[in-house]
């Protein structure tokens, strides 16, 4: 647990009109957060700026998901995902997120934008089950091989169904 925050069972649900926006540098440090991000995270903007975006990472999220996210955006592609975040008070909130590279005037990636919206409840339920299995794969593999194990499990399942990650996640 980071900073001694104890996860709780209290869920904050995004409103249909909510849009959470944040921006990071290329190392994942927060450089911008909108009012809704501050509201849901429970941190002040000053507490967020300069910190790693994983400050809101919920322990129910498998590391393999973030490996996939970082591997994807490193290849200059956008990524969509359902993510369970943890607020400063230990409560949680699910988001439907889109992460895209941000570029300077010369076209060089200088950071990443993340735009989060209210997720579909059925998708949250489906992904919570997927993430539980991925976490179990990570536990079985041990810390060193955790990311590869959980991501490998997900890729194998998707391959067996004949779909790629994007097709799967957008179908939920």
Number of helices: 6
Structural class: alpha+beta
- Give the radius of gyration: 16 Å
Mean pLDDT: 96
Number of domains: 1
Q: What is the β-strand count?
A: 5
CATH class: Alpha Beta
Following the backbone from N to C, one meets helices and strands in this order, namely EEHHHEEEHHH
Topology (elements, then pairings):
Elements: E1 20-24, E2 30-33, H1 35-41, H2 45-48, H3 63-74, E3 79-86, E4 92-103, E5 109-117, H4 121-141, H5 146-161, H6 165-171
Antiparallel strand pairs: 1-2, 1-5, 3-4, 4-5
Task: Please tag this protein with its features.
alpha+beta, Beta-Lactamase, single chain, about 170 residues
What does the model show?
The protein is of the alpha+beta class and about 170 residues long. The chain has a single domain, classed as Beta-Lactamase, CATH 3.30.450. Helices cover about 40% and strands about 20% of the residues. The protein contains 6 helices and 5 strands. It has a 5-stranded antiparallel beta sheet with strand order 2-1-5-4-3. A hairpin with a 5-residue loop joins strand 1 and strand 2. Helix 3 crosses helix 5 and helix 4 packs across helix 5. It is globular, with a radius of gyration of 16 Å. It starts with 19 loop residues before the first strand and ends with a helix. The relative contact order is 0.17. The mean pLDDT is about 95.
């Amino acid at each position: 647990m980071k900073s001694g925050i104890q996860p709780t069972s209290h869920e904050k649900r995004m409103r249909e009109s909510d849009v959470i926006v944040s921006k990071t540098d290329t190392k994942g440090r927060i450089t911008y957060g909108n009012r809704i991000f501050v509201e849901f995270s429970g941190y002040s903007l000053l507490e967020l700026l300069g910190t790693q975006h994983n400050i809101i990472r919920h322990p129910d999220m498998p590391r393999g998901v973030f490996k996939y996210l970082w591997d994807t955006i490193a290849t200059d592609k956008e990524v969509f995902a359902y993510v369970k975040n943890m607020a400063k008070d230990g409560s949680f909130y699910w988001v439907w997120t889109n992460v895209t590279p941000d570029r300077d005037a010369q076209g060089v990636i200088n950071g990443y934008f993340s735009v989060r919206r209210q997720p579909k409840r059925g998708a949250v339920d489906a992904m919570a089950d997927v993430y539980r299995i991925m976490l179990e794969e990570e536990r079985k593999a041990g810390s060193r091989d955790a990311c590869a194990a959980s991501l490998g499990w997900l890729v194998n399942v998707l391959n067996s169904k004949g779909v790629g990650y994007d097709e799967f996640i957008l179908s939920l």
